Amino acid sequence: MKSYKELLNENARQSGLRQLTEQESDEMKKALMGMYKDVARVCAEHGLTLMMCGGSCLGAIRHQGFIPWDDDLDLCMPRGDYEKFKSLLQENVLGDGYEYLFPSASRDSLCMFMKIYKRGTLCVEMGSEYTDFPKGLSLDIFPLEGVSTNGLKRKCIGVCANLLRLCANMVYEASYPVSETTRQMTTMSGWGGVMVKLRRVLGTVLSVVGHRHWVNWYDNLVNNPKIEKLASIPTGRRLYEGETLPAEIFLPTRKAMFEGVEVNVPGRAEEYLTNLYGGSYMQLPPVEKRERHFILDFCLTLQ
To answer: Which of 14, 8, 32, 20 is closest to 259 using CA atoms?
Structure first.
């Protein structure tokens, strides 16, 4: 059975949703690399570990840069460094050209991980068009968490984390209005249509508790800066247990090249990528399996 995300990707290909031109894609990638360099500089100055993860790690290993059809940057930091970086952001260490979001007791967050936005740009993704969240070009930073070696405890945290993540996503979908384009994108037949309606009903019921609370409950549950034998990126594509691996697969990091820039990747990146994408990760997937983001509006030079 296809996942909700796979059904959305399939619907996007059939709907004729706006795609970036080749020039726009190139400009976006250059802008993202500029943002990355600013973040990496701050991390280096303060002794914080920053590494490529997810599709960006795959891009570094397979393409030595962006996956050709990809349009984002996925980064990761050990939770301890992630918390230090949050404090630095609040001290405006990146300057006035940036703004940011992350789970916070005082402010709602679009996601359960950190997003860094470039001011003066526009990159509106499906579902966020009528929210109060920043709309600029962004890169993602995921916390790398320590994980218990107690199997029962790990299983309980994993199940609860995945449920909280699902609830947060459904509440988000029920809490914010969307454009007609987004509405059409999420209009499906068959199982996909049933899934969309069910998510809307459950999201409406659960939204008696605000989205901010669901996000923070999740963040507090998985928060574990003590990385010893096991580690996980719970906000990653394979969820808490699916992303759990021996800590030495992630740390210490090693060097790789990405768009001509030396970056960090997990120390045993090949094992990390095999867990994430399967043993054939070096092979290009067929067009229908290539993931994409759903961008509704894009501009790098707002006046």
So the answer is: 32
